[in-house]
Design a protein that fits this description.
By secondary structure, the protein is of the alpha+beta class. The protein has helices at about 5-25, 40-60, 70-75, 100-125, 130-155, 170-180, 240-245, 260-265, 315-325, 330-335, and strands at about 195-200, 200-205, 220-225, 230, 275, 295, 300, 350-355, 385, 405, 415, 420. About 35% of the residues lie in helices and about 10% in strands. Mean pLDDT is about 95; it is low at about 170-180. The structure holds fe (ii) ion. Fe (ii) ion binds near residues 48, 78 and 144.
């Protein structure tokens, strides 16, 4: 069941304040930066999530609703053709105006209108489609919370000072490590040998089921035939990936898909995005680095060998799997394996690339109205990731949850888990 409306307002307020808390360590200057066309400024994320509620909830449901400022529907529409023209995505970083304070005032304006709407609706007893759209907006905002962290990490990595979003020694970091986004996996399974969990295959039901919220791309639930396979109990670790690098993984075209090899050569990939090798000279250190380092939300840190490798493109994940004598699981194998109690690091560590292209399930039915553009129109040329990362809001994902990115994307918190065909035993 969807939450009753008073609970929905509580949920709304909690998630909205979570966004503000995530932005809190950032200066107004930090929040305005766009480091590449695919990444957006924090300030834009904060405004766009408000635009979503304004355009898909308040305008349709509140007859006398007044938009906060003329032009904001142009600035903060992301990709909804039905809702009009918009600021080109690569030029979001040019929006020095509205100022940070005005974006926060925009959020307050929307929050107050949402509270009035939800309280009035609760009093009248009218629910249904409104409740579904508000719930979608809440989950949409959580997706942008992860993108805020993903995008600011990319911006900070491009800054020679390499600022830390949350320095490890700070009290805020301690709080973050205790709960919520940035919480690490409890154990360090990457230090242990991989256990190959045997999966029988057969006809398996895949996709979301039940009354709880799910995105349209998670359904309908349907049957898929799986051959017997094995799946690794843990994610590929940094130590595993270092062995791939040391064995010439980035110099052996036989391990790579053609498109991936061309991209790796074009951009001179030698390691995951944000990794620095021994000998690298960095601005803030007097001496060259003596060991491999990784740049993350806690700044530049020595690589933790047991931690899952992240910030890989699909091409790198597939090349690693080839080198390891394995392959990526399909998204269906991944979902079926979540029933196995031995599967570790399912969520909260790193998104896991799968072999599956992002396609509609049989009988796919998009959300109604403008939200029909939410997922369906991206179902070409992208690969599915499953699980959830250390930057994913707690409780946001499900076993049926489908994330997706083009195969060359490297700035996400994305790693991999290996699978093998049973027939290759
Ligand atoms: Fe969005």
């Amino acid at each position: 069941m969807f939450p009753e409306l008073p609970d929905l307002l509580t949920h709304y307020r909690t998630v909205r304040s979570d966004s503000i808390a995530l932005a809190a360590p950032l200066s107004a200057e930090d929040q305005a930066v766009q480091s590449m066309p695919d990444a957006s400024p924090t300030k834009w994320h904060l405004a766009h999530t408000s635009w979503f509620f304004e355009s898909l909830v308040l305008v349709p449901w509140v007859p006398d609703y007044r938009r906060f400022r003329p032009g904001f529907d142009y600035l903060f529409n992301s990709y909804y053709e039905q809702l009009g023209p918009r600021q080109p995505r690569p030029q979001r970083g040019l929006l020095s105006r509205p100022a940070q304070a005005e974006v926060l005032a925009y959020r307050d304006h929307v929050d107050q209108a949402m509270a009035r709407l939800l309280q009035a609706t609760a009093a009248s007893g009218a629910v249904g489609e409104l409740q579904r759209m508000v719930t979608l907006g809440i989950h949409h905002e959580q997706q942008h919370q992860e993108l805020m962290l993903t995008d600011i990490l990319h911006a900070f990595a491009a800054n020679p000072l390499r600022p830390a979003y949350r320095p490890l020694a700070s009290p805020a970091a301690t709080m973050a490590l205790a709960a919520g986004p940035l919480a690490p996996a409890a154990a360090a399974p990457g230090a242990a040998p991989v256990r190959w969990l045997r999966q029988p295959g057969g006809i398996r039901a895949i996709g979301h089921e039940g009354a709880g919220f799910a995105f349209d791309n998670e359904g309908p639930r349907h049957e898929v035939l799986l051959q017997p396979y094995r799946i690794a109990d843990r994610l590929v670790s940094c130590a595993d990936y270092l062995a791939f690098i040391a064995d010439g993984g980035y110099r052996r075209p036989a391990l790579w898909h053609a498109d991936g090899w061309a991209l790796a050569r074009q951009h001179d990939w030698q390691a995951p995005l944000y990794w620095l090798p021994p000998g690298a000279v960095v601005l803030e250190r007097a001496e060259p680095l003596e060991q491999w380092h990784g740049f993350g939300l806690h700044g530049l840190q020595p690589l933790d060998p047991a931690a899952p490798v992240m910030h890989l493109s699909w091409y790198e994940a597939a090349a690693f799997a080839e080198w390891a004598g394995a392959r990526l699981p399909t998204e269906f194998e991944w979902e079926a394996a979540t029933q196995d109690p031995g599967l570790q690091q399912v969520t909260g560590s790193a998104w896991q690339w799968t072999r599956s292209s992002y396609d509609p399930y049989p009988g796919f039915l998009p959300f109604a109205g403008p939200a029909a553009e939410y997922n369906g129109k991206f179902m070409v040329g992208q690969l599915v990731l499953r699980g959830g990362s250390l930057a994913t809001p707690a409780g946001h994902t499900r076993p049926s949850y489908r994330n997706f990115f083009p195969p060359g994307a490297r700035w996400q918190f994305a790693g991999l888990r290996l699978a093998r065909d049973e027939s290759h035993e």
